[in-house]
Amino acid sequence: MQVLKFGGTSVANAENIKKSISIVCNALNGKPTVMVVSALAGTTDQLIATAKLAAEGDEQYVQQLKAIETNHLSVVSQLIPVAAQSGTLSLVKRMFNELDKIAEGVFIMRELSPRALDRITGFGELLSSRIVSASLESQHIPHHWLDSRELIQTDSNYGFAAVDYPESGSRIREAITSNGKSLYVLPGFIAADKEGITTTLGRGGSDYSAAILAAELQADVLEIWTDVSGMMTADPRLVSHAKVIPHISYSEAMELSHFGAKVIYAPTIQPVMNREIPVWIKNTFAPADAGTQISGAVPATSDRVCGLSSIGKIALLSLEGSGMVGIPGISRRLFEALSEERINVMFITQSSSEYAICVAVEEAFAVKASKAVDRMFGREIAAGSIEPLKVELSLSMIALVGDRMRNRPGISGKMFSALGRNGVNVRAIAQGASEKNISAVISHADLRKAINVLHEEFFENSYKQVNLFIVGLGNVGSRLLEQLAQQQDQLRDQFRLQLRIRGMANSRKMVLNEEGISLDNWKQQLEAGNATNLPALLEFIKKQNFRNTVFVDVTASGEVPGLYEALLLQSVSVVACNKIACSSGYDHYRNLKGLASDFNASFLFETNVGASLPIIGTLNDLIRSGDSVRCIEAVLSGTLNYVFNNYDGTKPFATVVRQAQAEGYTEPDPRTDLSGTDVMRKILILARESGYALEMADIGNEQFLPPSCMEGNVEQFYEQLLVHEAHFKKIFDQAQGAGAKLKYVATFKEGKAFVGLQHISPDKDMYHLYGKDNVVVFYTARYQEQPLVIKGAGAGAEVTASGIFADIVRAGRVGV
Ligand code: ADP
Ligand code: ASP
Ligand code: MG
User: Fold this and answer.
1) Residue 274 Cα, ligand 3 centroid: separation in angstroms?
2) Ligand 1 geometric centre to CA of 451 (Å)
3) Of all helices (H) and strands (E), which one includes residue 552?
4) pLDDT tens digit string along 189-234?
5) Distance separating alpha carbons of residues 44 and 358, to the nearest angstrom
6) Stretches in the chain below the pLDDT threshold 70
7) Euclidean distance between CA atoms 205 and 676, whole angstroms
8) Residue 804 half-sphere exposure, CB side, CA atoms within 13 Å?
9) 10 lines ligand 2 (CB under 6 A)
10) Using CA atoms, how far apart are residues 685 and 705, in angstroms rounded to an integer?
11) CA triplet 533, 539, 543: central angle to 5 degrees?
12) Residues 743, 645: contact at Cβ < 8 Å?
């Protein structure tokens, strides 16, 4: 004996019904077989909606019912050859006449009792099973259509009736024998009470009908044919990389479905588990796929965490008060109040102090629950010993399921640290004593992110996704994208990181795409985008709430750093080559660093000093390992190096500065470099990262530019340089006379910083500094006589981009 159940999509239209029938025919092979069918996809929902309209007195219900009828009639006419159609068409019409009458009764009475609703919804399965039977008939496939209402007897709890197993069992065995015709077709979902009134087994209940039949018939197997290739590690609509679980135990399947895995209706498992009947979940649309086997024992090689599931729209109810401590019976009364209202409790936690009990229920019951509980504890609430029930809405519950999680330390640690790293705030936690599941209540807005984060953590060791937003696509930004495109495959294969660019912007245009932006044609996509709007960009990042997100600021803009605070608060990491935030007020800088650590995000800005030279990272390592910085000497300006390495009085100083600008070394206004402002920012950042609370105003700066050079626009600045050529020549000659080279040096010593031109003699490290080289010399408690020297190219788009890239990878790999 075998029982095969076909879900709504498997019988949604003529084509699918043919597929289901062919699966049954292949399975028959002389074996007695029971085929259980759901209603045509969507029909149950439509019937409920229609019934509600009728009860509200809305005449639209008539058209809705007509639409359902038309759909069924058209399936019949496509499924069954014309010559054999008429009998079935008139049967369907007769059934709709009956349905019309019942709905009319509801309309007239303006009342929809649970009993009437069951009567109405039950038509879905009656219709579908009759249509399937008619199709078998037309193909001359011998079979019996049986009315499940005559076989499965329940109590009169309409909508969710409880099965009377002994009575149902004997009826089932009497009606279905292994002799005679070997194929039986039955409607799922429906049953009848003692009076013979139609009842239903709960939404999704056709699975359960099939399980009852399989159990009572001692079937060899129960097959659930649906539209996915098995029970998956997570709801495939939430997690695109969800994988089919090849083999799962009854208790795991029960936990997963109980916590929202809709692929199988939770009560289905119990009857087959009791009789140890194996269950297979199979895909009607890919019958060759292996599917999932559900049975008693699973192979030891299976994952310890077998899957994740979630339930949306739940409410958290907390009962709190000093009057609860040590008083027996409080929780009994709480649950009694809820059960009297027939409210199902999905989750319970109680603090060990007994000061609070917290339960989760479906959101739809929140108001009813709160009234019932407040009534139950009316006396204590009036006396002030217990507070009125606290209700929190817009929450979801997520659960990690696996029989073999038990005795395996670290699983919940891994779960909650992954959630924490991604800024998912956990409202309540429960772990069953059996340790088959760990569940947590979180904000509904975080659901998709949380499930994906956990899925990645437990099932996708293959790679971790990093979601990027890049602002600033000039010289450095474009190089960065080129490097990302080039390295993408290697990052994924070797470092298990998959980069997804979800948004990019320059000063004019921005493009945001929740599916990701391809690096092949990003320029076109950007040009076709909208006008740049930073608040809208921030809104998008918040709303999409992607996991593991990194925001990259490759601008020199004063506005973009204004977003960092909001981003870090969202646990979005920030990688900046923009120096403005770190060189603004000390309190602001500290605040951003504090937010990054509080919200488990990275705030990285290695390229603020010396492009991709490992300066800040090295300094951080020194400090973290207990070293302390005594003095820093550094040449940190590519522009100033270039200028003083090339200026020897043969060409005007202005010409050399213009060359530096043409080569792309300078900031847009070269005075930012020549005035020393840029170097001041860099030494400020190094001092701060060394642990000193310095401000820009504390830094000494001996200007070498005559004051008139600082007035007017860039062209006027160049004119003034020419006017003052003699001044620059004199500076050069003085150095040459002393046998020294001119270097623009930043120094930090004894808590004070200053910048300015210095004569450097040939015995110094800094003397031998060419082109755009930077050098930083650290004197620390550990490096006293022999300083730690970091030297190399410290400017240029290519190296700066590579430094940003390294920060992105660092931010993305946090916690891997
Ligand atoms: P049927 O109509 O065949 O009974 P359902 O719609 O009731 O099908 O259940 C199948 C659906 O369950 C799938 O299409 C899938 O979207 C959803 N689903 C939710 N969680 C899971 C999971 N863990 N594994 C597989 N499918 C799941
Ligand atoms: N048709 C019913 C429902 O949609 C039962 C089922 O499909 O399993 O809930
Ligand atoms: Mg279902």
Assistant:
1) 21
2) 16
3) strand 549-553
4) 999 999 999 999 999 999 999 999 999 999 999 999 999 999 999 9
5) 34
6) 178-181, 301-303, 352-354, 407, 432-434, 461-462, 814-816
7) 75
8) 34
9) no
10) 24
11) 145
12) no
